[in-house]
Amino acid sequence: MAASAGPTTQQRYETRIGRIPIRFLNPQQPENRWPAKAFVGEVLPFSATVFREGHDQLGAALLLTDPRGTTSRFPLHPGAPGTDAWHTSAQVDAPGTWIYRIQAYSDDWATWLHNAEIKIPAGIDVDVMITMGLQLLARLEKSQAVADATATLSDATLSPVDRLEGVTGDDLAAVIAANPLASLVTLSDPLELRVERARAGLGSWYEFFPRSEGAKQRKDGSWASGTFRTAAKRLPAVADMGFDVVYLPPIHPIGRTFRKGPNNTLDAGPNDPGSPWAIGSADGGHDAIHPELGTVKDFSYFLGVAKKNGIEIAIDLALQCSPDHPWVTQHPEWFTTLPDGSIAYAENPPKKYQDIYPINFDNDYEGLRQEILRIVKYWIGIGVTIFRVDNPHTKPLEFWEWLLHEVAAERPDVVFFAEAFTRPAMMQSLAAVGFQQSYTYFTWRNTKVELEEYLHEVSKVTSHTFRPNFFVNTPDILTEFLQFGGRPAYKVRAAIAATGSPSWGVYSGYELFENVARPGAEENIDNEKFEYKVRDYAAAEETGDSLAPYLRRLNEIRAQHPALHQLRNLDVHWSDDDSILVYSKYLDAAYTGTGSDDTIIVVANVDPHSVRETTVHLDTTRFGIEIGTEFTVTDLITGSTFVWGGDNYVRLDAFTEPVHILRVEYPKGN
Q1: Identified catalytic residue from 419, 597, 598, 607
Q2: What is the mean pLDDT of residues 466-471?
Q3: What's the domain of life for this entry (predicted)?
Q4: DSSP state, 211?
Q5: Strands 312-317 and 245-248
């Protein structure tokens, strides 16, 4: 008879909470599937919920390890009483993978001091409390402050209250703050931060079509296209306005089948250049340059001129094809074939794009992704480091996660910018899997309430994952606010974009107040997507009919104020007027590089048709000034100065200067 099996030894349960609970760490992405994101120079708010049983005092610290393996310690500070929230800030200064942990501990000195300050004056357990204090002092490294405190606490000739007073000085407090008397030390699990180069989160973008720059119309109505050589002549002026990224729509050959004509018509003439997004012809596909723009050598020249002017070039990665693209015949399996044998063109009902075939990843996933990786690497090899990705939300997220990982493994400096005006879940997920930046809903947030909510969302709620780029317009988007708001609207939108987000951008023509829409569409009439557009920027500026000086000033202000290089430091304030938006950006002196705090207050009249008078209410503690203290502000647009406090009268005339951009001058001794 077989022996019966003995009782199974139960596996010991390992607790997860830790001796001192540490929960709800930030920054981290929801679900923590991918690291939270930051860029070099960014100041990050770190926080956690830390608590314990009983009434003993707690301490907490951030342990932040850089890519070189050096760990720095930053004390955490308690938040509002009763919340158990602890927080601190730290600046990241190098790209790569950073690791952070939260350390929590029983603060033995703070616990003793809290009890001693109650018991000793009341004559309760005096000798015991003094003995305990001396035992704690004996745990500290020897120093003059420790020796003096020990001598005073031991001096029986003094009263107990005077002996206690001798251990409450600043010198001893500094010693203990540097090396806390800790027990029950608990560490959180480590979390990763993906820190990318500064351009991943900071930049001023300018979009133009190279074929329009230097284009000339012949007497017979045909056109000589602009080239990379002629477009390079535009770069110094763009740099002079303070823009450091130039984005080019697709630079590839354009198909002829179903080519679109002016204003998106279906009957293109022989002189119509077609939409650059209808990629591919007998001249090549995504790894080719449109012959009218030049050669690879010409493009390299263009990149070189940009670099000399402090500009990076972003090119468009549009994963779609003209019916004439080589892929259509070489790889028909990369498209969707309909029951009648035709290939499905792109649609977003009621919109139809007969000149474009979308690709289908589900037919040959591996083949497609390897080809696209090859194309991206090809352009990187030529010198491209930024890709603006067209409609990424129409391709599988899994593909983007894979592609961006493969590129980052070899070239972590490459930036991908998502053109994804779509549902929040998709936009946030594109950012989560690796896109460094994205277009945003800012384009359609125009009222005070809309802007307040959205500025708070992108700076506080989604900033661990999602980096916004506040483009004011695009070739596809001319909002009603711009169509009907006149020049004041153009100033308002540019000022909020340039100060509200570290990354912002304009599409060429914005500085010329191009505001006439194609009937029934939210885009410019005579749209540059379908035709050449010749602009005389210099003449407009000479006659005072250009916004270029204002854009230049905005970028100068951005360059001079490090507070505007940050995303997470934006705080919304209040006004009594439904059209006066108020927010501030503050950066502590520890992070400015100047030794001084930097604060910008923006007050914007978002009604471009009015003059507004109101009272602005500021929580000055948000930028380090005590409530009730007066301070001076200087308008960086007009040069005017004002003495302000918590409540301030404001008058903003939309027809002169609709926005205050105010620099705070800190009171002496603040």
Answers
A1: 419
A2: 98
A3: Bacteria
A4: T
A5: parallel
Determine whether the annotation assigns residue 391 to a binding site. yes
Decide if pLDDT at 6 tops 90: no
Annotated binding-site residue? 24:
no
Extract the tokens encoding 459. 């700076």
CA distance 235 to 243: 9
Q: Are 621 and 627 in contact (CB under 8 A)?
A: yes
547 to 111, 214, 487, 558: CA distances (angstroms): 61, 21, 9, 17
Task: State yes or no: pLDDT of 79 exceeds 70.
Answer: yes
Alpha carbons 253 and 257: distance in angstroms, whole number: 13
Note if 522 is an active site residue. no
Give the model's pLDDT for residue 29: 93
φ/ψ of 60, rounded to 5, equals -150, 155
Residue 576, token pair as written in the block: 């009594």
How far apart, in whole angstroms, are the C-alpha atoms of residue 501 and residue 201?
A: 9
CA distances from 188 to 46, 102, 301, 434, 525 (A): 13, 5, 52, 25, 57
Among 34-43, 340-349, 399-408, 637-646, the least confident range? 340-349
Active-site residue among 390, 523, 571, 577?
390
What dihedral do alpha carbons 441, 444, 446, 447 form, nearest 10°? -80
Residue 541 pLDDT > 60 = yes
- Active-site residue 419, yes or no? yes
Check whether 260 is labelled as a binding-site residue.
yes
Spell out the SS3 assignment of 348-417: ECCEEECCCEEECCCCCHHHHHHHHHHHHHHHHHHCCCEEEEECHHHCCHHHHHHHHHHHHHHCCCCEEE
- E-assigned strands of 392-533? 415-419, 437-438, 469-471, 503-507
Give me the helix-helix angle, 126-137 and 108-122, nearest 10°. 150
The widest CA-to-CA distance across the chain, in whole angstroms, is: 108
48 vs 74: CA distance, rounded Å: 13
Alpha-carbon distance 493 to 223, whole Å?
A: 34
Residue 530 is assigned to a ligand binding site? yes
User: Which of 398, 326, 328 is CA-nearest to residue 357?
Assistant: 328
Peptide bond preceding 121: is omega within 30 degrees of 0, i.e. cis? no
Coil, helix or strand for 163? helix
416 among the known binding-site residues? no
Question: How large a percentage of the chain has pLDDT more than 70?
Answer: 99
529 assigned to a ligand binding site: yes
Closest CA to 655 of 621, 612, 603: 612
| Amino acid, single-letter form, for residue 228 | F
Residue 354: both structure tokens together: 């007969």
Using only C-alpha atoms, what is the Rg of the chain? 31
Q: 471-484: per-residue pLDDT in tens?
A: 999 999 999 999 99
Inter-residue contact 454 to 445 (CB < 8 Å)? yes
Return d(Cα 398, Cα 319) in angstroms, integer: 15
CB 483 within 8 A of CB 476: no
Secondary structure (H, E, C), 252-319? CCECCCCCCCHHHCCCCCCCCCCCCCCECECCECCCCCCCCCCCHHHHHHHHHHHHHCCCEEEEEECC
The label of the residue with tokens 């384009």 reads 443
Helices then strands, each counted (H, E), the chain: 17, 33
Query: CA–CA separation, 293 vs 210, rounded Å?
Result: 7
